[in-house]
Amino acid sequence: MSAEPIIYGLIFVGVLVLVEGLYLVTFGKSISLNSRVNRRLEMLDKGTGREEVLEKLRKEMQQHMKTKSIPLYSLLGEKAQKAAIAFTPRQLIMIMVVLGMVAFLGLTVGTETSVPVRIMMSVGIGIGAVYFWVSHKANKRLAMIEEQLPDAVELMVRSLRVGHPFSSAVQIVSKEVQDPLASEMGIIADESAYGRDVGDALKEMAERLDMQDLRFLAVAVNIQQTSGGNLAEILAGLARVIRARFRLFRRVKAITAEAKWSGKFLSAFPIVALIVINVGDPTYYDEVRDHPFFIPACFAVGIFLGLNLLVMRILTDIKV
Q1: Mean pLDDT, all residues of the chain
Q2: Is the pLDDT of residue 204 over 60?
């Protein structure tokens, strides 16, 4: 049995660990989503000025918005924007190159594949590892913000009911809740202190994160600012709506989980079976490999696997 598939997997995992370690070493442990430390407050406690902290965090959260116009980088840039990756777009591209070189070195030492195959695998590992890492960060960050938002809105309601203005309520949320929502609200509070409209700042945050619940919050604040009314009661109702939507999304996710995993299993099984057969018996397909229909059949199987994933995704994509 050949150990090359295992080596490919180990190299990919090692590259992921390498980029995560580089990220934590460069920007500190508080940038990790697993950390209970509020990164903004930690920077302020170290003596960094409020204006400097605001500028740094805004740059990190907005620097990837300009990359949407780049054809090949736009998908990664959109994910990096939602994940608020502190690496600049240029640094991410350099990391891809470095990881590709590391992967090529690992493949050269651990395998005996030809140079063109090693180059292609190295490029795929470098780009794929960074995209997988950024995508994981984005999904995890958005999920945490969605979970934190109802409690944050209820905290705003309690602050408003005891007499605090809305800008102070946002400031309280930025100190009491954990990241990632704490730093986002801290930016809004600092921008409000420097004269920016809170409603506009909330709207920009909602569009940047592409989150419907945040759009509801921004609309509610803007309507109250223009038309008046009891903002505490409006936000109390909004908190109940957000919490109910969150429970509904979780229920839909649980109901569709079996179908989603079935689609993934059915699509992955032929590929896994092909790998296992080639590892167990490398000469298994030698008799048919030269057949004129072999390559078209491989393309047909790939197309059908892609269609299977697409159809299963459409069937389980329930609009709420």
Answers
A1: 79
A2: yes
Query: Do residue 312 and residue 218 come from a single domain?
Result: no
Counting beta carbons within 10 angstroms of the beta carbon of residue 314, is it exposed (0 to 12), middle (13 to 18) or buried (19 or more)? exposed
Per DSSP, helices labelled H in the chain are 4-27, 39-45, 50-62, 74-83, 89-110, 115-161, 166-176, 181-193, 198-209, 212-227, 231-280, 294-316
Q: Is residue 234 part of a domain?
A: no
CA pair distance 221, 202, nearest whole angstrom: 9
- CA dist 146 and 141 (Å) reads 9
Same domain, 215 and 260: no
Query: Is this prediction's pTM over 0.90?
Result: no
Residue 2 confidence (pLDDT): 52
Q: How far apart (Å, rounded) are the C-alpha atoms in residues 91 and 20?
A: 14
Length of the chain counted residue by residue: 320
Residue 283 belongs to domain spanning = 247-320
Do 185 and 152 contact (CB within 8 A), yes or no? yes
For residues 107 and 4, give the distance between their C-alpha atoms in angstroms, rounded to a whole number.
9
Q: Is the peptide bond before 292 cis (omega within 30 degrees of 0)?
A: no
CA dihedral (52, 58, 59, 61) in degrees, to 10, reads: 150
